Amino acid sequence: MPNKKEKIKTVNKKKQRGPRVELPQSLRGMSDILPKDELWWKTVWHAGETVSELHNFSFIETPIVEPAALFELGVGASTDIIEKEMYTFRTKGGERVSLRPEGTAPVMRSFLEHHLGYFASPLKAYYVGPMFRYERPQAGRERQHHQWGFEIIGDSDPLYDAQVIIIALDFFKALKLKDITLKINSIGCRVCRPTYKEKLKNYYQSERAKLCRDCERRLEMNPLRLLDCKEEGCRLIRARAPIILDYLCQGCNNHLKSVLELVEDNSINYEPDPYLVRGLDYYSRTVFELVHASSGLALAGGGRYDYLSEILSGRSVPAVGVALGLERIIDTMIKSGNVPHFRTKPKIFFTAVGEQAKKASLRIMSELRSSGIVVVEALGKKSLKAQLKLADKIKAPLALIFGQREVFEKTVIVRNMESGAQETVVIDRLVEEVKKRLKS
Ligand code: HAM
User: Helix, strand, coil shares of the chain as percentages rounded to 5?
Assistant: First the structure.
């Protein structure tokens, strides 16, 4: 026979049990950013905001969903992103739309749609947000990742190519991230690239039998991407392939020379990489990646895209930009032993005891917060002892104690958490008194 206590337990258990449901899990390659990650993300956002402001970039935000055609035209129909990785679907209205796989084409769309060139020439804009690519999830490769991007639209001067590289490096500096190498190349222009592509195609034709499946397709669709293949066999073939630097026209040669001079003037550690072509078709002339030494992962990538505007609108507008991968950056910071250094420490722990005190406490906390004081509370905890224990744990320098008596007297007890000393202060002077104690 179960005793009375056990009976109550069984009844409660039965009450709690609802219908069996399976919790839908997050999708593969898409992660939650959890409260434990907050400081890392704040550190990165803070660095991003600071660097964007120092370089005088304006904020721009474009929608996450865009017409599929924007990316098919802009990024290029024969790239891996468009062929294999786009989240494309039809809306109820029948429009073909895509989750953005990157931010450059949307920013250029917005620039053209809103005639932003009339307001600033060149336009310097930054953005931050999630990008979606249906890739095979692995270390450093998510299906949803976040980028912080910088675009300079409306000028072809090599100075701006160097500026976007410097901005990305300033971002890393602000995060105290070291061991970053600039890999840089030129992929020419409409004048010189076709000749190089032909040479490359001829060379690879002669090696066709040894190519992997993907490269056989690339040979027809997008020969430059042959240089990007990670397969061992294809890498061996690449070692004897012609390199674009031997085929650049005078204009592209001069442009590359100027960018490299500026890079050297700014003491930037760089490696010319004749095989760097990048996975997006809109690039012309300068392409680059910022690679972390130990992981070999590109933490940022960018380049010039002088034809994108023409492809989208028929109007020619030169542009250059860079985007940083935030998950990769945070992961690298954690692995390199960096510490998150952006923190708004709670200054006040507010404790209230009794229903009346709890009700009145919201207004008092609002006043403190309006004066820029970070207040933490645990009003759900009943006893003063439990609340003060938490105050100790979060290491707030002051605790405010508000009970029935204080409600009646319109006062608050201010407790110094280090010494344990307590003083009573009238509510009307609380902000002032708290500020005074926090300063000392
Ligand atoms: P991207 O190189 O494709 O360039 O991406 C920029 C950065 O985002 C990469 O260097 C990497 O750190 C990060 N990233 C890319 N894909 C993933 C992924 N699947 N998982 C995690 N991180 C990833 C662009 O998107 C260009 N729009 C950059 C640009 C701006 N070019 C000119 N302006």
Answer: 45, 20, 35
Q: For ligand 1, atom 8, which residue shows the shortest CA distance? A: 325
Q: Where are the beta strands (DSSP E) in 48-174?
A: 58-59, 65-67, 88-90, 96-99, 123-132, 144-153
Separation of alpha carbons 286 and 178, rounded Å: 24
Atom of ligand 1 nearest to the CA of 322: 30
How does pLDDT run across 71-105, given as a tens digit for each residue?
999 999 888 899 899 999 999 999 999 999 999 99
Nearest atom (ligand 1) to Cα of 140: 21
Cα–Cα distance list, 173 to 66, 178, 197, 329 (Å):
33, 7, 38, 12
347-439: same fold as 35-192+248-335? no
- Domain 347-439 fold is Rossmann fold (3.40.50)
Instruction: Tell me how far apart the alpha carbons of residues 351 and 377 are, in angstroms, rounded to a whole number.
Output: 6
Minimum CA distance residue for ligand 1 atom 20: 141
86: left (phi over 0), alpha (psi -120 to 50) or beta: beta
Task: Return the CATH architecture of domain 35-192+248-335.
Answer: 2-Layer Sandwich (3.30)
Stated pTM of the model: 0.87
- For residue 244, give the DSSP letter: G
Q: Given the structure tokens 């409306």, which residue do they identify? A: 154
